[in-house]
Write a structure and sequence with these properties.
Layout (H helix, E strand, L loop, with lengths): L1 E6 L7 E8 L6 E5 L7 E6 L16
Antiparallel strand pairs: 1-2, 1-4, 2-3
């Protein structure tokens, strides 16, 4: 999964900030964050898609 930061504003750009993976026992996730946001917003986990299938931010339903 890809970890995104979505700032609290109109028409935000979803910034990829890391990755998440499920534990082998299915009981949780591990996160690797390359960036920690310092502005108000949400962190979203989304299934990774091939680049040609990626959803533009305005269609992702922030």
């Amino acid at each position: 999964m890809t970890v995104y930061f979505v700032p609290d504003r109109e028409n935000p750009y979803w910034t990829p900030i890391g990755a998440a993976g499920a534990h082998s026992d299915g009981e949780g996730f591990s996160l690797r964050l390359d960036l920690l946001p310092n502005t108000p917003g949400n962190i979203q986990l989304r299934k990774r898609k091939p680049k040609e299938e990626a959803v533009p931010a305005e269609e992702a339903g922030a």
